[in-house]
Amino acid sequence: GESVGLHLPTLSVQEGDNSIINCAYSNSASDYFIWYKQESGKGPQFIIDIRSNMDKRQGQRVTVLLNKTVKHLSLQIAATQPGDSAVYFCAVSGGTYKYIFGTGTRLKVLA
Amino acid sequence: GAVVSQHPSWVICKSGTSVKIECRSLDFQATTMFWYRQFPKQSLMLMATSNEGSKATYEQGVEKDKFLINHASLTLSTLTVTSAHPEDSSFYICSAWDRPNEKLFFGSGTQLSVL
What we know:
The complex is a heterodimer of chains A (111) and B (115).
Chain A: E1 4-5, E2 10-14, E3 19-25, E4 32-38, E5 45-51, E6 56-58, E7 62-67, E8 72-77, E9 86-95, E10 98-101, E11 105-110
Parallel strand pairs in A: 2-11
Antiparallel strand pairs in A: 1-3, 3-8, 4-5, 4-9, 6-7, 7-8, 9-10, 9-11
Chain B: E1 4-7, E2 10-13, E3 19-25, E4 32-38, E5 44-51, E6 57-58, E7 67-73, E8 76-81, E9 90-98, E10 103-106, E11 110-114
Parallel strand pairs in B: 2-11
Antiparallel strand pairs in B: 1-3, 3-8, 4-5, 4-9, 5-6, 7-8, 9-10, 9-11
């Protein structure tokens, strides 16, 4: 079955530095990957997505990298800001419209 | 981007009562919606898939008689927690599939506290 995990439960980053959040998945047939940001008491907010026919996609201050060979996904946040503090989840397609969520990484931005 | 509205954002109820949570897609039609449960400091756990005009598909271990799902229109799905008990207290989140754009959007969540 599908399993999704994150390498680090908590990541502390100095304000202005770059953040890298990692995610591993097990199903080689997964073809769609999404990163979500969840602030306390709120629903997940879409950040960026990538399909399996790509290995990199960039947004505003964020970049998602996909390595299908090792089934690894990462989210890079440039110039991390206090407003980036949240829990970040990766989600991997586990079937028709269904997504399996990783355990989450809490990003703490230090002033 | 697409907006999914979830209401109420928080609710406190007495044990034994039923609570209804609404999930609406505001600017797109969603034939498929999902309901999740999230415990503190944990990830989202998929409870069920809600399909417009048909019965919901529940994940293993989720009591369908306990968590009633109705998806009567293309923009509205409801989750009713029947005969709620303190162990049902949790953060419930819905999501809606925006088919044309192939994206999944989430509601803001409902914090349920059963006394």
